[in-house]
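Could someone model flavin mononucleotide with this protein?
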Amino acid sequence: MKKIFSLAATMLLTVTALNACTTNESRPTNNDTNTTNEKPMELKGKKVLVAYFSWSGNTKYAAQYIATKLNADEFEIVREKPYPTEYQPCTEEAKIEKEAGERPAINGKVENMGQYDVVFICAPVWWYTAPMPVFSFIEQYDFKGKTVIPLCTAYSGPSSTLKDIVKATPDSDHRDGICLVTKEMNAIGMEKLNSKIDRWLSGMGF
Ligand SMILES: Cc1cc2nc3c(=O)[nH]c(=O)nc-3n(C[C@H](O)[C@H](O)[C@H](O)COP(=O)(O)O)c2cc1C
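Reply:
Sure, complex below.
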């Protein structure tokens, strides 16, 4: 795991420059979110799904932390054809897939998506946005009438990841997303970010 992240650190030196003007938390404007409600819907007590993609475990950690706290259901987004387990080949394959705008096949389906009021969509930042399987997932469902809340984990910053999830769910209500950045902690120890997740959730009324 350490090797993966030190390789990530090297590769992402270039990424860092591009992310220089991002912050850890994204506050999409109303234009981005298509949010028209004057008074946001009460989220406490709503039926919640936490959907996530994770390759090296960071996003999975955050998603499962949220699901446990909120007593929510989980759905892991898994590409049918697994990504390479080595970092460098994975980045190369992910880059080709992103540049081609592919929508790779993913495993399984959410049972009865209609039952959920709130869906967290959690993803790592891959080449400045979410991995393509996340968009395969989003495009399979109707998120109209649901509250979609994006989360990303990243080495250096969200780039357009949170906004891209919002844009891909234009008929939903949204809440401000969060980006959990691992750079400061040498890309290990996600539990150090628990209190940040706690503050974010309680700020939304959970
Ligand atoms: C293919 C690939 C591309 C990545 N691109 C970025 C990037 O553009 N910006 C960034 O800050 N981190 C980038 N990273 C680092 C990951 O976003 C970060 O390590 C994330 O926490 C990994 O989440 P996971 O453990 O759930 O897979 C990339 C990692 C991989 C494997």
